[in-house]
Specification:
Layout (H helix, E strand, L loop, with lengths): L2 H19 L2 H11 L2 H7 L5 H14 L5 H7 L5 H16 L4 H15 L3 H14 L4 H13 L3 H14 L4 H13 L3 H14 L4 H15 L2
Helix pairs in contact: 1-2, 1-4, 3-4, 4-6, 5-6, 7-8, 7-9, 8-9, 9-10, 9-11, 10-11, 11-12, 12-13
């Protein structure tokens, strides 16, 4: 019998303890003591509901961008709790790529965008992209800055680059849709927002936008 099958009840017990004491530090320490991320990734697709929930939560806490696909697939799980756990953690995984230096530079860009210093954020993210072209979230953060600077064509391009490097990046797909709306291309916007929903079906605000755009086209 495999280690995954033997240890599944233990993982479930650790998850139940976490639900009781809400101590993420203890959960992370205990899970890391007994499980590798490879095993957790396999358990994230278990037929056992509690095991899937526990494994997705653990990957969200312990994983980095290399495990992005695990949470990306979990966004479409048949269980709503699994989907919510995946969505709550996947954005953090998008930021855990590259070296400590790259992650620190990205954190600076995120702060600049949050403080609405969009010119500075665009410049900082450009430097990060030159150093780490593969860093999908760097492209996404520059797309955010460009969008807020009303540079919609450049924002659209960067959203595409982010999605090309991270095919689970539903936020970049939403960004593309919003850029197309600003550029008066409702049909392209509708296609992008539908893609975002395919990646993350629980986004009710995006679903409402899709319904609104579809009705607008149907009424023409």
């Amino acid at each position: 019998m495999s280690d995954a099958l033997v240890r599944t009840p233990q993982l479930d017990a650790l998850y139940q303890r976490y639900l009781t004491n809400e101590s993420s530090a203890h959960f992370v320490a205990d899970v890391a003591r007994y499980y590798t991320l490879g095993t957790l990734a396999r358990l994230a697709e278990s037929s056992l509901l509690t095991t899937r929930r526990a494994a997705v939560l653990a990957v969200g806490f312990l994983g980095d961008f290399r495990w992005n696909a695990v949470l990306g697939r979990a966004l479409r799980d048949r269980d709503r709790v699994v989907r919510l756990l995946a969505e709550a953690n996947i954005r953090e995984l998008w930021c855990r790529d590259g070296s400590d230096f790259h992650q620190a530079r990205l954190a600076s860009v995120v702060r600049l965008n949050g403080c609405e210093r969009f010119d500075k954020a665009a410049g900082e993210s450009t430097r990060l992209i030159h150093a780490a072209d593969w860093f999908a979230e760097a492209w996404n953060q520059r797309a955010i800055a460009y969008y807020r600077l009303e540079r919609f064509g450049e924002s659209l391009r960067d959203c595409r680059e982010a999605l090309a490097r991270n095919p689970f990046h539903f936020a970049a797909a939403i960004g593309m849709g919003h850029c197309y709306l600003e550029m008066n291309n409702g049909l392209a916007a509708l296609e992008c927002l539908r893609l975002a929903l395919q990646l993350n079906p629980d986004m009710e605000n995006v679903r409402a936008q899709v319904d609104y755009l579809q009705r607008a086209f149907d009424e023409k």
